[in-house]
Every structure is written in C-alpha cells, then in structure tokens.
From TrEMBL, chain A:
Protein name: UDP-arabinopyranose mutase
GO BP: any one term: plant-type cell wall organization or biogenesis
Presence of the UniProt keyword Glycoprotein in the record: yes
InterPro entries to which the protein is assigned, alphabetical: Nucleotide-diphossugar_trans, RGP, RGP_fam
Pfam annotation, one family: RGP
Domain of life: Eukaryota
UniProtKB/TrEMBL annotation, chain B:
Function: Probable UDP-L-arabinose mutase involved in the biosynthesis of cell wall non-cellulosic polysaccharides.
Domain of life: Eukaryota
Name of the protein in its database record: UDP-arabinopyranose mutase
CC annotations in GO: cytosol; Golgi apparatus; plasmodesma
Molecular function GO labels: UDP-arabinopyranose mutase activity
Origin species: Gossypium arboreum (Tree cotton)
Amino acid sequence: MATVSPTPLLKDELDIVIPTIRNLDFLEMWRPFFQPYHLIIVQDGDPTKTIKVPEGFDYELYNRNDINRILGPKASCISFKDSACRCFGYMVSKKKYIYTIDDDCFVAKDPSGKDINALEQHIQNLLSPSTPFFFNTLYDPYRSGADFVRGYPFSLREGVPTAVSHGLWLNIPDYDAPTQLVKPLERNTRYVDAIMTIPKGTLFPMCGMNLAFNRELIGPAMYFGLMGDGQPIGRYDDMWAGWCTKVICDHLGWGVKTGLPYIWHSKASNPFVNLKKEYKGIYWQEELIPFFQSVALPKDCTTVQKCYIEISKQVKAKLGKVDDYFNKLADAMVTWIEAWDELNPSGNISAKIPNGASK
Amino acid sequence: MSLSIKDDEIDIVIGALRPDLTSFMSEWRPIFSRFHLIIVKDPDLKEELKIPEGFNLDVYKKPDIDCLVGTSTSTIFSGYSCRYFGYLVSRKKYIISVDDDCYPAKDNKGILVDAVAQHITNLTTPATPFFFNTLYDPFTEGADFVRGYPFSLRSGVQCALSCGLWLNLADYDAPTQALKPEERNSRYVDAVLTVPARTLMPISGINIAFNREVIGPALLPSLRLGGEGKFRWETMEDIWSGMCVKVACDHLGLGVKSGMPYVWRNDRGDAIASLRKEWEGVKLMEEVVPFFQSVRLPREATTTEDCVAEVANVVKEQLGSKDPIFARAAKAMVDWVMLWKSVGSSTSSPGA
C-alpha cells in the first residue's frame, strides 16, 4: 500500500486574506488550523473603527485609509462597503498562495464527526494537478483511493497545474436573493465527498467565501470588481473574478477545482438587501455569460496580465453598450493591473500556450 | 420534480456473458422484479443460461439473433456487445443496463441503492450542460442553483443518458488495476452532476441508462478490439459508443449525467493477465480522444441517426487510414443506422 505523504503546511508560502467589517471572533474556532499562518485583514467600512484581532495571530491589517495611502488615485479600483475589497489583500500579499474566507464561516464536520481542516484540503487541491481536458468519472484521480478510469488517455494523466481551489459550504448555501426568498429554510446538509476539475470551456459561479488560489499563477486575474458604495451592483464580485479567471486559466492551460473542503456557513444575509444588490446583476448576467463564453484570447496573450487587459478591452467594446457601468469596470480592470504590477514588480509568470486538445 | 414514470415504460437489458445468472437475479430481485427484462445471451457462450423464476422477461440467444439480423450480422453482438441487441429490440422509452457481475450497492447509511429509481430520476429531471452548478444537481432534494447561475439556463435540457458508478471494483483499465491490485473503490460520492457540453468523458457501459426514444441509435456496437475479450479490461466498445453519444447529445442539445447510482461490482478476472493480452485499447484512446474532441457536426444533422452517420463519415475520413480498426468501426456505424431503421425503430417514434 502506497504511503500517503503528509500535506506540507506551506506556512511561509500562504497568506489568509479576510475581509471584515464586524469583528474577527470567528478566528477562535479556526485557531488550530490558522495560527501558523500570516493573516491579511482588509477592514471595510468605517476606518476609524478598531477591529479586534484575537491574540496570538500574526497579521497585517489595512483599512480604507491605508488602501488610499498605498494606491493613491488607483485606490478607485478597490470597492468600498463590499467584501470585494478583499482583493486588495491579494495585491499586497507577497506569498505564493492565498486562502480567503468570510468572517461568518466556521469549521465544519465531516460525516464521521471530525473537524475539517479546510486549509489543508485546499493546499492538497492546489499542489496536485488538475485534469481539465477530459472528465474523469471518478472525480479527482490523484486522491487516495481513486484513479483514472478505463478509457482515460495516458497522455492526459499528468494533468496541468492547479490555479484555483473552490470550496463549498454546509448549512447556509450560497443562493441568490430570489432563491433565498423562496426557500428561506433550506440548508445544505449534503456532504459530497469529491473534488473535481471544472472542464476547459465550462464556466461556473465562483464563490469567494472559501477559496484558495495560486497567487503566483493567477493572482492578477482575481480582481473582484467595482461593487458596493456608489456602484449599481453588489454580490457579483466573486462571480466576475471567477469568470475572468476561468477564461484565463482555460487559455493558459491551468486547472480550476471545485468540491471539498466544506466550511460551515453560519449567517444568512438579508434576502431583501441582497435582492437590491443583485437586481441588476440578475439581468446583466444574461449578457455576461454569452460574453465570457465567447471571449477569445489571442495567442500572444501569454501572461495573466496581458490576458486580463485583453478581456478589459473586450468588456468595453461589447458590454459598454449594456450599461455604462461596464466602461467604468473595464477602466478599473486596467487600473487594477497597473496597481498590481506596481506593487509586484518582480515578474510575470509566462505560460506557454499548451498544444492541448481543442475545446 | 420528476415526472411519474410507469413501470411499463422501462426495459432492463442484461447482457449475459456468464451462464449462471442465479445469484445476480436473486440479488437484484427486490429492484428488478417490477420491470420487464430483456436478457441477451452472448452468442459465443456455449452453456445454457440459468435464470431463476418469477421475472417478467424475454431471453434472446444466438438463434434468435441470427433469425432477426442474419448470421453474418449477428457477429456484431458478440461479448459485451450482446446487450445492443436488447437495445435494438426493446420498444420501451427508457433502458437500464448493468453488467452481469454487478450487484445492488449500499449507500453511506447502509441502505440498498435502488439503481433503477435513481437512473430514472436522472433521466426524468433536466440536465444543465451549459453552466456548471457548484452544488451539483440543482433538481435534487435539498439543493438548488447557486448564486450567479443565469436564470435563463435554469430550466435545463432533457437528459438523454445517465452514467452510474461502481463500488468495489471500479472501472479501471488493466494497467491501472494491475499496478494497484488491492485497490477497491469505497468512496460513495453523494452526487449526480451534468457533464458540461463539449466536455468528453469515458462512458462506461457497466451501469448505464438512457432515453431510447431520444438517443437510442447512438448506443452502438462498432469499435471492436482485435483481441477483444470477455472482461471489461479487454474492451473499448462502450467507451467508443459513449463518445458518439456525448457528441450527439452536445449537438442535439441533450444532457448527460454522471454520478449516482452506484452498483457493487464483484471481483472478476486478473488485471495482469488482461494486461499481457491487450494494450491495444489503451493505445487507441490516444487517437480517439483528440479525434472526438475535434468533431463538429453540421447543422443539417437534426436526428440521432443523422449524428451517427455523420460521425461515421468523419471516422472513415480522418481515422480510417490510421488503423483498419477505425475503418471497420465506421462501416459498423453505418450498418447500425440501417439496422436501427429497419429493426429498431418503434412505431411511435417522435420526430426530431
């Protein structure tokens, strides 16, 4: 029987980014799993408020004043009064990996009653390859107890680097406002013991509540858009980042996984408040999805930044007519990349476009 | 939200590769006994079939096959492909097929899995191939579409094919099982999901169900390995057929689901023995997968038969010269469409 090597801690290679407007009491429950890591707290809302961080955590904290000071005029691309501000944390991090989690997410239990170390599972997901070109019916073939099924070509069994690990939620599911209104009591009690690669060419709704990614690979694509105060839309920040990220990962030959780990999502946000935030998004996404499904990135877009700038041009050209918001968003996307490159000057990961199987 | 399906809309088709079906049928009795069964005996099998009493079934053997399709054609139904004869002669809307070495499985709570009921649920609730739902099947109890899932895509499309999974002996190829002789699948994944449009996968014939009215002709015997044997490790016929089905479904806007139900697959055979015997299937997949990923069907192909005929054409043109096995497969596909039209078409076939 092959021995399973323990998952590396990566404590000096991973930052945990947490947006908050309230408090960080939830960290107490995560202490056994999070304490070795450096935290980046992005404080949204009133910067004069003091956010208390539990004792014993190593962290840096940024409020709106810090964001304005560090980015100057480019701070306009960072949302205010919306958890989208978390992407500022991605930008200032110096680590290879990011794990981001919401402050109403707690440790879940697996079916045997054991506490789930979500961070460890995310690390396993990121450190093992993805398989976007052909679907494995037994899900993640690199997990112990699983493998590639009959018919899976051997030439595709090495997989590709994993850029994103998208975790799920027990208890309060990530539903939109209309669904919350219709099913206010629905709780997710189903523990699906699987991780899988989302196939190339397929889009998905990426939730930022329990998300990890390889910042060195895909960081610049994880811009969470213009949301919240002064903006016509909210609760589409992670969606936007997810669609841009997936298109770029598909283009550059990297994988996106979804499934385990689960966290326990404790707080159901107010569906009426959510409806007001999402309202425009619900209409706009009918345009956005065909847009992202048809984005074609030219071969000379070999870095994430180049891909992202190209997408911003296409956003302006094709979505500007849906609403002027998209013109502003396209500009903000460019500002984001400029700010990213200023704060992270060391270099771009250039990917050789794989001669993989076509879509 | 599944429609209520009458038992007489369902046929259970079993390909008998081993003569003694007593324990197989007894184990499945609680689940199968309500339904009509079609048992097709592998024409190469010499021994008499042993089938317990108390089932509503029709059994087809070599003479029956010869009679219906002629002795030269009946060779296409040898081995695991015998089940396709059952698909051909059935007149029911839904077909469920499991290998004769598979038994009912138990779920995580220790409850016997009604594989038939789960397959029917999969086939009668919509599929969602155009956008991935991170909570898997949104139509199942306790789940729904997540935030960010476009509303215009929430009604889904008709599901044509339901691919189940296997506990214990998973459907690995011979090299994989030979490398890990003790490995058994013990992970019960409580999910059904739609395989996205334009995404291909290895569709195993071991535990499968489909809407015959809608996709029947695309499940076909055509790719036969030179050394094809009587163990799944020694075949690729279902994998090939599955590629055709998925391409046709993607083109026609139909869905394919994968996941539950599980069946318990008994240990059988020796992977190392199969490994020594047959690399051919494994090598062929290197050609087969990129080929199917590049197939684009013309707009004029509006029925499943059209799709199969078109794929056959492209196989002949692009793969025929690489290996005679593909040229033979292409011809077999064309012959199958003709056979389906003459023998397989039901009297009440709905227009495309």
